[in-house]
Design brief:
DNA polymerase, domain 1; globular; 330 residues; 6% strand; mainly alpha; three-stranded antiparallel β-sheet; hpI Integrase, Chain A; 5 strands
Amino acid sequence: MAKYTDKLPDFCFDYFIGIENNTSSLTRYNYSMDIYIFFNYLAQYIFKKKENTITLDDLNKLKAKDLEQYLSYLSYYEIDGKLYKNDEKGKARKLSAVRSLFKYLFNHDLLISNVASKVATPKLHNKEIVRLEEDEVSRLINAVECPTQFTSRQQAYNKNTFERDNAIITLFLGTGIRISELVGLNLESFDFSQNAFVVTRKGGNQTMLYFSGEVASALKTWLEKRATLNLPEEEKAMFISLQNQRISIRAVENLVKKFAQIASPLKNISPHKLRSTYGTNLYKETKDIYIVADVLGHKDVNTTKRHYAAISEDMRKSVAGKVKIHKDVE
């Protein structure tokens, strides 16, 4: 998290200490990045400063319209020489980070008012849930196992990472965990006597999840390969990059995309889509939206219902003729 916190004012350090017990390390990292973007905007467009040196006095001068203009700015912006854009979801996340900071500062009498609480969250539009069909899942696994459509150079690279990549893809498809949860896994997170592992959910809560023998087999194969790597003794990360350190979110996104382009070239498949695929299959098998919500770590079952509304409709159609109004009289 130091990449961004080192560039933030000192009062932000107390803020991150204050939210440590209620958030995961990934959440705090994302918040630090979002707050850095916000302060950079304030310095450049509101207070006309040459450097990102925002003070508490500056924050006390802000009006709600300043934050509303910031949300508009987030549609398409440049920072540190790179261009970015955000949809409603991205804007809502960045506003959430700002709200969290302002709430903390206001509650600790460092701000006169909590102006961020006056700004409405961007309306989120439901998007079509993209998931893999059964045949696409098979092609995805085959692409990992037999990457014949890749160049010779790519195949040589994949040969060095096959066990790891197969374990990652299988774990996504077999448990539906989030990418942030996957990269945060350590060796001690797993108990193969129970085929179980512990994940740190959003908000910092830990949950025990269970996996099948198929997933266990892929994980054990990777662990055998991992044991042959020249890793520092203190490196406890479950999944390792070619640089012999914990694999990054970006690296996992890239490997999923690489294989998914072969399995389903017309779909933009990300790790989250593999999560949706697992949720779909679990719902079809259990017919229980509450189990799906619990396993996926959704705090609100309505979130799960929105994701799998299409499946519910298919199920309603399938039972349309099950109840007979006029029954035959013997």
